[in-house]
Design a protein that fits this description.
Rossmann fold; 27% helix; 4 helices; 144 residues; alpha/beta; 27% strand
């Protein structure tokens, strides 16, 4: 199933994240692969997800920490930024397998780890739309 959304504010981008969270089976591990350039709203999208999956979590970009963990309602929510991950050895040295198998794993910059994305991952692509720097096109592909 593929869904396309168009947003004009950060809040609307967060709303799309909330909508995806409501679609997930919250009792099972899940992988969400995120794609998009710098500043397109990936972390805002994750804030929306977290508002449903880990209420009260103070979501911030994991750019420098690589992984942020939020206590979820039924499973932990892992928010990863693999922008600076250079190879699979480095990816697995941060405990990647543990995150994928034990919680809801949301990975920014998934284009950097194409061989490590599970085949049943949900893919989220966010891109700027037109001349207006606030407009976004968000495509969600759920592979179940």
């Amino acid at each position: 199933m593929i869904k396309e959304f168009h947003t004009q504010t950060v809040e609307e981008t967060e709303d799309v994240g909330r909508e995806l969270a409501l679609m997930l089976d919250k009792g099972k591990p899940h992988f969400i692969a995120m794609y998009g350039d710098l500043g397109v709203g990936k972390t805002a999208f994750v804030r929306g997800l977290a508002s449903v999956l880990a209420p009260g979590a103070r979501v911030k970009s994991p750019t420098y920490t690589v992984v942020n963990k939020y206590d979820g309602l039924s499973l932990p929510l892992y928010h990863l930024d693999v922008y600076r991950i250079n190879d699979e050895d480095e990816l697995y040295s941060i405990g990647f397998d543990d995150y994928v198998n034990t919680g809801i794993c949301v990975v920014e910059w998934s284009e950097n780890i194409p061989d490590s994305i599970p085949c049943d991952a949900t893919c989220v692509t966010i891109e700027k739309e037109g001349e207006n720097f606030e407009k976004r096109k968000i495509v969600i592909e759920v592979k179940r």
